[in-house]
Write a structure and sequence with these properties.
single chain, seven-stranded mixed beta sheet, six-stranded mixed β-barrel
Length: 396
């Protein structure tokens, strides 16, 4: 993913700077949902490109890009950099671990230092080439500023309508040599642990009141979930083990759908994906029929009234995906081909391969908007889950 080996070697060296007081509370930034797509087919193509990149990584030991043209979708956070401070809207990417700017808004700063090391990256939605810089970076509404933060600055980029990427994936995606943003905040004593909390609201639940979501560095935001966060270790099965991958099983009511197996939790995907054989069992259990125009399973009102819970078996706990969580938001039916305003479509999709691939499920945005998720990048990496006030919401 990077252009020269010396870049990785240099980044392994410690970076010194003025310490800041360690915070007891996490640094929380609002996330903004970007839904500039013409129809659901765009979202499906986006997800399919991401899946193709993961399977390329599995087959060849690397992650190739699968470019998407003229696609403007993602979840962004605003980060201030340099002097004068310029605000950059960065795509939150939990499948990469580097941060860079300059994809749209040009990087200009009187305090930045060009480290002089080339760097670059390829993504499903584009690519960039640039140079490693150091400069101050501001996080959160309380304007916590960290000096001498290292990040990439693009000299050229393709496919980006946003300013860059905020990588929150595991540090292993950079071969363990490039500090992630969370690692860097720990090194600079801004937070105690490299922990990231993710919170989303379902579409149509007063999201405008507090934004579309939040990302917290240094811990979970206790105000956004109920009960306790329960953790499970990262799976050891590749390629899921390269990412925020876990083991889980799924049942539909009392019907087994997916055996206990490996997959990933990722905010870059829209839908809930399961292995092809598991999807066939889910389709048979729900009675859904494939809508050829939009690629989603469609059910009748009567079938919806008899729809049963999906149970995600993660660790020792079961997480309930209520019937309403399994359907596409009807307020967005106008973005669907082949459907009317009152038609009902399911958000569970099938992968192109059967159980046993090492990537047997992807818990995408439709899952994350129902549960609080914690990515813990400590010595023993793990993923945590907690229920939220929206876990059983009926907004769809």
């Amino acid at each position: 993913m990077f252009s020269v080996a010396s870049f990785l070697a240099l980044l392994a060296l410690p970076v010194m700077g003025s310490p800041v007081e360690v915070r007891n509370s996490p640094i929380t930034l609002p996330m903004t949902r970007r839904l500039a797509f013409s129809n659901v087919s765009d979202l499906l193509r986006h997800d399919e490109a991401l899946i193709a990149a993961l399977t390329e990584y599995n087959a060849h030991g690397r992650r190739d890009s699968v470019p998407l043209k003229n696609f403007h979708w993602g979840y962004t956070v605003s980060v201030g950099i340099g002097n004068p401070t310029i605000i950059y809207d960065l795509i939150v990417d939990s499948a990469s671990a580097i941060t860079w700017v300059g994809g749209h808004t040009q990087y200009v700063s009187s305090t930045g230092t060009n480290i002089g090391v080339p760097m670059g990256g390829t993504y499903q939605y584009g690519s960039f080439q640039g140079t490693l810089f150091e400069d101050s970076m501001t996080f959160g509404t309380d304007e916590l500023s960290i000096d001498r933060m290292r990040f990439g600055v693009a000299s050229t980029s393709q496919g980006f309508t946003f300013d860059g990427v905020l990588g929150i994936g595991p540090r292993g995606l950079t071969r363990g040599t490039l500090p992630t943003v969370a690692d860097y905040l720990v090194q600079r004593h801004a937070i105690r642990e490299p922990i990231i909390g993710i919170f989303f609201q379902p579409i149509g639940v007063g999201a405008a009141l507090i934004g579309d979501g939040e990302i917290s560095f240094g811990g979970a935001n206790r105000q956004r979930y109920t009960g306790a966060v329960h953790y499970t270790d990262i799976t050891d099965i590749p390629p899921s083990s390269q990412y925020w991958g876990i083991n889980q099983g799924i049942t539909y009511g009392d019907t087994p759908i997916l055996d206990y197996t490996a997959g990933i939790v990722n905010c870059g995907y829209t839908f809930l994906y399961i292995a092809s054989d598991a999807f066939e069992r889910y389709q048979a259990a729900t009675g859904g029929t494939m809508n050829a125009a939009n690629g989603l399973l469609q059910i009748s009102l009567n079938q919806y009234l008899h729809l049963r819970n999906l149970y995600f078996h993660i660790g020792r706990l079961n997480y309930i995906f209520v019937p309403n969580a399994q359907i596409w938001p009807r307020s967005l039916n106008y973005r669907l081909d082949g459907g009317g305003d009152d038609d009902i479509f399911l958000v569970v999709k099938g992968l192109e391969f059967a159980t046993g691939s090492g990537l047997d499920f992807i818990n995408g945005y439709v899952f994350l908007q129902r549960f609080y998720v914690v990515f813990d990048g400590s010595i023993r990496p793990r993923v945590g889950f907690a229920r939220t006030p929206y876990s059983r919401d009926e907004s769809n």
